[in-house]
């Protein structure tokens, strides 16, 4: 079983299935007891809704049960529905399970999934920091646990598990007063169980695999498999290139890391210097912020209905794609290999950070930019000076 809470997680589950099927050195079944017959790298390309040449019945021989635990925001839910359609076209079973939106929703979802979770031989998760996923892990009896990318958070996950630390998102700041501390104390046993599940057992017995595009190194008995977006490249593109530059938005303002006014100045500067014409919005960016950006810069705001890796691979896409430190500076070079697109990352100036930003934010964002492969580095000073 696979549990996903975002469009990118679902995309990376499909990439993991493809990578396992394409690896001749891996003699194990795709999932324990399930044959490894899925679409080959030579399958036809097409847009969303295009079925494989073998059809869903043939693909069903390697079917994976994917459980979608959707968030409440409309953009994420829309992208998840499109990704769910792609997964079904690949022959996989997709179950849409509401686990939010009401006080009893998490408990109802847990009860509905408990039997299948206990019976699963392999469990794939997309967000090890998710409290709901951690709650599900208390029911897991599987010997194999796979973590697929949920973006740059994977870097922090690897670092924290290597140090044996509590799993906490890099941008999270402590607080919540007495009520928050009581909640953390009550949740501590669940968090501790999740940490144990994510720790491989030396000598076998409990296997943990990380499937990632991020520059991470497995520790202990953990297994690392590189996600090079082979499924995306086989399924879509190559894209038509435009003459302009595309900017990629970030939710750093929404998460309280970057000051809104400083972010606007930086986007305005990048637009002017690089001749950008389009701005691909992050699914969590607020409509008010996007409206302000459009009015201040003249950029065309694009709200993708699929993860950016698929949108860029389908095209059209600019010959240069500029992003702030985020997941895409690691994933787009893989997805756009051989297309002639240059991916650039603009550093975050420490002065742009808010007073409430996590103490780890500055170092983490710098590490995201510095470790990106096959990208062009843009110093924050250039954007600031131009602005």
Characteristics:
seven-stranded parallel beta sheet, about 375 residues, six-stranded parallel beta sheet, single chain, Rossmann fold, alpha/beta
Report on the architecture of this protein.
By secondary structure, the protein is of the alpha/beta class. It has two domains: 2-232, no CATH class; 237-386, Rossmann fold (3-Layer(aba) Sandwich), CATH 3.40.50. The chain is built from 14 helices and 13 strands. A seven-stranded parallel β-sheet has the order 3-2-1-4-5-6-7. A six-stranded parallel β-sheet has the order 10-9-8-11-12-13, with helices on both faces. Strand 12, helix 13 and strand 13 form a beta-alpha-beta unit. The longest helix has 21 residues, at 177-197. The radius of gyration is 21 Å and the shape is globular. Residues 29-61 have low confidence and may be disordered. Residues 25-58 are annotated as: Disordered.
């Amino acid at each position: 079983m696979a549990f996903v809470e975002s469009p990118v997680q679902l995309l990376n589950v499909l990439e993991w299935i493809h990578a396992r099927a394409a690896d001749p050195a891996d003699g194990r079944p795709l999932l324990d007891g399930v044959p490894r017959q899925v679409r080959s790298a030579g399958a036809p390309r097409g847009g969303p809704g295009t079925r494989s040449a073998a059809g869903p019945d043939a693909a069903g021989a390697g079917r994976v049960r994917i459980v979608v635990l959707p968030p409440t925001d409309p953009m994420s839910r829309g992208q998840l529905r499109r990704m769910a359609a792609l997964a079904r076209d690949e022959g996989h079973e997709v179950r849409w399970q509401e686990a939010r939106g009401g006080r009893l929703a998490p408990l109802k979802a847990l009860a509905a999934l408990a039997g299948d979770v206990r019976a699963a031989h392999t469990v794939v998760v997309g967000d090890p920091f998710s409290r709901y996923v951690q709650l599900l892990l208390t029911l897991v009896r599987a010997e194999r646990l796979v973590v697929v990318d949920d973006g740059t958070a994977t870097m922090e996950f690897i670092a924290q598990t290597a140090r044996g630390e509590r799993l906490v998102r890099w941008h999270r700041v402590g607080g919540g007063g007495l009520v928050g501390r009581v909640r953390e104390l009550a949740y501590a046993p669940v968090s501790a169980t999740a940490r144990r599940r994510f720790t491989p057992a030396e000598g076998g017995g409990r296997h943990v695999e990380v499937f990632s595009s991020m520059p991470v190194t497995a520790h202990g008995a953990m297994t690392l498999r590189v996600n090079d977006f082979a499924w995306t490249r086989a399924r879509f593109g190559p894209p038509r290139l435009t003459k302009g530059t595309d900017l990629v938005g970030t939710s750093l303002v929404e998460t309280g890391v970057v000051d809104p006014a400083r972010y606007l100045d930086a986007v305005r500067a990048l637009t002017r210097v690089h001749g950008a014409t389009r701005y691909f919005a992050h699914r969590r960016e607020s409509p008010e912020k996007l409206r302000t950006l459009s009015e201040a810069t003249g950029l065309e705001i694009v709200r993708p209905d699929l993860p950016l890796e698929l949108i860029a691979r389908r095209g059209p896409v600019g010959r240069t794609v500029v992003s702030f430190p985020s997941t895409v500076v690691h994933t787009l070079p893989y997805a756009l290999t051989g297309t002639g697109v240059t991916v650039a990352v603009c550093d975050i100036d420490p002065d742009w950070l808010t007073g409430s930003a996590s103490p780890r934010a500055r170092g983490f964002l710098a590490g995201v930019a510095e470790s990106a492969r096959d990208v062009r580095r843009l110093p924050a000073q250039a954007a600031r000076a131009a602005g």
